[in-house]
Design goal:
Layout: E1 10-17, E2 20-27, E3 33-36, H1 39-44, H2 57-62, E4 79-82, E5 90-94, E6 98-101, H3 105-110, H4 114-127
Antiparallel strand pairs: 1-2, 2-3, 3-6, 4-5, 5-6
């Protein structure tokens, strides 16, 4: 599978959870993460997934400018989605197959803080 953002090779990584192993894909270049449907939600509560998002968030933010992203599974255009609990967090999603998060986004998604609430308010105000 190729990265939907930079077209580099994706490498499969496994995470052991209490409910079994979950395999996700990480880009060998930009370090973005691909989650099949349901995997990000499953890994959000697992402490074992704290080490998945190993990329530099500053580099990840530079990939937010990439538009017209295609699903690595079906090649359909992916949608830009804002997380409902953290509106400042934007990632790409294919309704049929999964989601792609740039480096640093899964860590942000996983760990909600008071700063995230503030960032969400600012992001909401900017969009108005």
């Amino acid at each position: 599978m190729e990265c939907p953002k930079c077209n580099a090779k994706m490498i499969e990584r496994s995470v052991e959870t209490l409910h079994g192993s979950v395999a996700i894909d990480q880009c060998s270049s930009c370090q973005g993460l691909w989650f099949d449907n349901g995997e990000a939600e499953q890994l959000k509560s697992s402490w074992m997934s704290d080490f998945l998002d190993s990329g530099d968030p500053r580099i990840g933010k530079t990939y937010n400018r990439v538009r017209d992203i295609q699903c690595p599974r079906c090649s359909k255009a992916m949608l830009k989605v804002n997380d409902s609990r953290q509106p400042h967090l934007e990632y790409e999603a294919c309704p049929d197959h999964g989601m792609f998060m740039d480096a640093g986004e899964f860590t942000d998604y996983k760990h909600e803080t008071l700063m995230d609430i503030f960032k969400g308010l600012v992001a909401t105000m900017k969009r108005r």
